[in-house]
Amino acid sequence: MPLILISGLPCSGKTTLANKLKAKFEKQMRVEVINIEKLGLDRNKCHFDLKSEIQFRGSFKSTVNRALSGNTLVIADGINGIKGFRYELYCSARELGTTFCLLYCTTSPEIVREWNNTREEETKYSSGILDDLIQKFEQPNTENYWDRPLIPIDPNSELDLDQIEKIAVQGKKLRARQATKIHIKRKSNILFEQGKIAQDVLDQIFEVMKTAQSGETFNVICFYTQTKKKFMIKKKASLPKLLRVKKQFTKTIENLNISQPDEYFTLFVDYCQKNI
Ligand SMILES: Nc1ncnc2c1ncn2[C@@H]1O[C@H](COP(=O)(O)OP(=O)(O)OP(=O)(O)O)[C@@H](O)[C@H]1O
Which CATH number applies to 3-183: 3.50.50.60, 3.30.750.24, 3.40.50.2000, 3.40.50.300? Predict the structure, then answer.
């Protein structure tokens, strides 16, 4: 059954949107909204650090997959700000040959901060986590085929539920393709590829450090294919220290199912920024 994926900054009106969709569609079919509340989790704990984020994404995805295999319209209501993760959810819909669409709540960072301030204390994002999530958010982009069809939603404008129904429910079904299966690479290939990506990132960081003076901050830009991450490192580190960071990262993510090279790259660069 259809998958409606919602994406947007934290506190951008996603659940409000999901509830409006549910109210409309449940007159016609079974509808399941999957979000932090449904999973019984705390939004600040889920995004506290890399490990908890990855665990949260794992349970979000498996709950979506379980619901999709039933006769249910699934509304996957989350920040879904990592493009590699949106790709994985798109693939779930594609493997089942169902309809799919991405609704993007376009609320700006300034407004989400305001809305967050008016929330009840227990549902508020702490300001550090809110800023971190805003900074990391990879905006949906129709150049990525898995971000299509994309419907931008401004929570302050009238919602065109009929347009969403036309695309998400009556629209074209995705076709399960061999490519989806090919993508499920053998673990050893994935580990080999991740090792290369990590080494590449370290080489790029080390290159900048070689020419910089101790005590100054470094601006580093790391590339992986077309993905670019710019960040700052506060102090110079030795090569053994960089290798230790890589080892710690590998330990942190071991047993977590990261198959997308893009996602691995983004997570590793974030980890380097925080731990060097
Ligand atoms: N159009 C709107 N105008 C003003 N406030 C709004 C609007 N939409 C949502 N809000 C407020 O923003 C807060 C967050 O709304 P909502 O739970 O829908 O966002 P969310 O993106 O699902 O949040 P989260 O990232 O925590 O899941 C709520 O307090 C809600 O009242």
Answer: 3.40.50.300
